[in-house]
Amino acid sequence: MHASKRALLAVACGLVAGALPFGAMAQAAAWPTKPIRLLVGFPGGSTPDIAARTIAEPLSKALGQPVVVDNKPGASGNIAADQVAKATDDHTLGIVINGNLTSSKMLYPKLPYDPGRDFTYLSLIATAPLMLVAPANLPGGTAFFDAARKAGDTWSYGSVGVGSVGHLGMEQLKSRVPGMKAIHVPYQGNPQVVTGLIGGQVQMALIPPGVALPQVKAGKLRAVGLTSGRSTLAPEVPSLSEAGVKDFNLEVWTALLGPANLSKAAQERINKELAIIMKSPEVRQKLFDQGWQAVGTSPDGMRARVKEEAAIMSKIIQANNIKLQ
Predict the structure, then answer these.
(1) Signal peptide span per the entry (predicted)?
(2) CA pseudo-torsion sign 181, 199, 160, 51
């Protein structure tokens, strides 16, 4: 009888021991287990920084861990993107812009990461059309493009740098407006582009509505049109198609991603919580007040958009032989 009890105890111990790996696995699958680092490749106050800080607090509350925004500006966001790609702690995410995923690979021959292979795509965060603006003394609508054709290469346009969405978008626009030959003038940032427009150093630029609208409303700049259909961000501004530009659609956006090795537990938890956060009226209003539309996409939806835009940007870069040193 005593031996029988020992046998039963051994069986019980064996069952408990057999169950331990499953318990350990369940515990290991819990995510997050420490603060999340959210890398932003641009300085404080920039659009990606605004997007990051808008979602950081609600994401922190949902996950039960601090979400720390860490600004690592440089190389148009590519330095931070590379750090995300190489992260191995399962608690590092990043906020990126169009170019980091769609054009950087073609512009930077030595880009240290592969946009299609080195990341886990999570979701778009915010989108906005660009607004074509000009000095206030120039006409709007179709008359603007008539004047641009007539001026040829004596007119210039500003952007925040070679390879930026404002630069590539304007080259795409020129391909849709035969005879428009405005020359590119790069600036350090959109505030400098606006100064150049107001001073008449450049005659046009594609800039976000949040930057452009205050100057338009003050009568310092003229809004020619939006690079998408009509938008609630600037309901009084027509689309460029209304000014005669056909087959032209362009938006700027920010997105959330992680390294390719991000655990399934992390992916599932983030996707679940972010879907709720991006529908929050408070989050949507905060982004809207900064000139952005809040969006939430599936990882597959984000990947499809990146693939489509990368193909468009590749054609623009190749057609204009755009290169970065």
Answers:
(1) 1-26
(2) negative
